[in-house]
Write a structure and sequence with these properties.
- The protein is about 35% helix and about 15% strand.
- The protein contains eight helices and ten strands.
């Protein structure tokens, strides 16, 4: 089985999806079911998981018995807030320790603040969390986060919610080559071809939210993303042909050609 291994867990799906930006929880559920994702990430500071009894609870639509709920720290701009948020998530989810850390640098670009990310990751790992960490596509920072003890590195492909796709595949390839833990593209995927490219590069999985939630038909896009991740993974495992620049190679054999009349 070609399973995705993150920390102490294994998953058959390599597509991770978010729960924000949908019209309602019912649409969220429909799209997630179409994606066949097993890990669903939730912004603790923006989503009700029971902390607000008077509001609809996401867990009534996306059950922890059926999915791995991955709490994230979207909206946090320093290490202290991020650590506090994930400790709250652990209480809300009965001791759940697999989390997604993101510490943002500014509200306009949502680019990660890597120094605060490193501080938060260090504290969370010491506290027994399995940390999947959103970061820049800097190979040096990625390796530092791995050395701290994070269980997955999640470099952005482009800015969160931009839909710009993978802007720097070369950095991603360096991160993948130097990593002994899963590398998961997080942020910037806009359509199915972006997911295919990420997987063909050798990424272990792809996380996305806006690309599905803001599609004209989220359910169909979720299904397309599922197939894209599968296709990209198979292509990576198959090994692509060598590129032959300025040189063609016939598809059919040249030996034994029938001679034409002279």
């Amino acid at each position: 089985m070609d399973n995705l291994k993150i920390g102490n867990s294994e998953y058959s799906s390599r597509l991770i999806v978010g729960t924000g930006k949908y019209k309602n929880f019912e649409q969220t559920k429909t799209a997630i079911l179409a994606s066949q994702a097993e890990i669903v990430t939730v912004a603790i500071r923006r989503t009700n998981l029971g902390q607000n009894p008077s509001e609809p609870n996401l867990l009534d639509f996306i059950s922890p018995k059926e999915f791995t709920i991955l709490p994230n720290t979207a909206g946090c701009y320093n290490a202290e807030d991020a650590v506090r948020t994930l400790r709250l998530a652990r209480e809300l989810l009965d001791g759940h320790t697999l989390v997604k850390l993101e510490v943002l640098g500014d509200p306009k670009t949502l680019f990660p603040d890597v120094s605060e990310t490193i501080l938060a990751a260090t504290e969370l790992v010491k506290d027994g969390f399995e940390v999947m960490v959103y970061t820049s596509d800097d190979p040096i920072i990625a390796k530092k986060l791995e050395d701290i003890g994070c269980v997955a590195i999640m470099p952005l492909a482009s800015l969160i919610g931009s839909g710009m796709g993978i802007l720097n595949p070369w950095n991603l390839e360096i991160i993948i080559a130097n990593s002994d833990i899963p590398v998961i593209v997080d942020a910037g995927v806009g359509t199915a071809s972006d997911a295919v490219i990420a997987m063909e590069l050798g990424c272990d999985a792809v996380l996305m939210n806006t690309a599905i939630a803001h599609a004209q038909n989220p359910e169909k896009m979720a299904s397309a993303m599922r197939l894209a991740v599968l296709s990209g993974r198979q292509a990576f495992l198959a090994g692509r042909m060598k590129k032959n620049i300025y040189s063609a190679s016939p598809s059919s054999p040249e030996d034994g050609l029938i001679a034409g009349k002279t």
